[in-house]
Amino acid sequence: MRNKRVFCGLLVLVSVCLAAPVFAGGGGEKPVTIYVTRHGRTLFNTKDLAQGWADSPLTPEGIAVAEDLGRGLRDVKFDYVISSDLVRARQTARLVMAQNRVSKDYPVDDTEALREACYGQFEGDPNSAMVAAFVAEMGISIEEMMQDPYMWLKSADAAKQLDTMGMAEDAATIKARMQGKLREVAQEQAKKGGNVLLVAHGMSINIMLSDLDPGFTYTGTALANAAVCKIVYQDGKFTIESFNDISYIEAGKALR
């Protein structure tokens, strides 16, 4: 009789477990804080040239701002560090981590998924020429373009339409790879929680954030070099806590 009661109890337990709903993002996940930052100033930035998949090294100013950011974040223990595979992003990530006191010189992963937008035939051209082509394609003025919070997405679409090389990416492609990698990193880190440093690029970060958090008022403001966008991932959702934050850079300058 006792064995029969035990067996019946096990059947009830199994039935309850099988009937229980499975929630995405559950399973004992822990919160993850992701410090997303743009790379430091580069040679092409200084010369005002279109720089997507084309690459150029950090200037002395770019190295300095990356080191300032590192000092401003020096007491944050990073449990994972990832960057775009472009030189300017990888260099920035290494400079930031070299200043860290609790996870100094943590190895940096890199991936094509976090690259800047590809501008195709416009790569290396003056930004002014590229923007002029974009606004002509959109049928608006530069002033109207600059006031549109979704100018980054519309610019990517214009680049795709105009590119004769077949390389430029539309906004949907950029958003899919950026958000896909962000979610992959967040879900993996959520198994134990902690902090992530993610170094990428101004336009692709803006496109990634454009609809990431429904509670965030997206403005499309251009990101400063080494500015931070702080994102918290928990229970399958992203919350943008800060955007284009240069306070870490300023704190780092004070510690020089």
How is the largest sheet built, in terms of strand order?
Answer: 3-2-4-1-5-6
Most strands sheet: 6 strands, mixed
In CATH, the homologous superfamily of the domain at 32-116 and 174-254 goes by the name Phosphoglycerate mutase-like
CATH fold-level topology of the domain at 32-116 and 174-254: Rossmann fold
The helical percent reads: 40-55%
Query: Termini, distance in Å?
Result: 77 Å
| Structure annotation, total helices | 10
Label the structural class.
alpha/beta
Strand content: 5-15%
User: What oligomeric state do these chains adopt?
Assistant: single chain
- Supply Rg: 22 Å
How many β strands by DSSP? 6
Q: Show unreliable segments.
A: 1-26
CATH architecture of the domain at 32-116 and 174-254: 3-Layer(aba) Sandwich
Write the layout of secondary structure elements.
Layout (H helix, E strand, L loop, with lengths): L1 H18 L12 E7 L4 H5 L12 H13 L7 E5 L2 H12 L10 E3 L15 H12 L3 H6 L3 H12 L8 H19 L4 E7 L1 H8 L18 E7 L2 E9 L1 H8 L2
Parallel strand pairs: 1-4, 2-3, 2-4
Antiparallel strand pairs: 1-5, 5-6
Helix pairs in contact: 3-4, 3-10, 5-7, 8-9
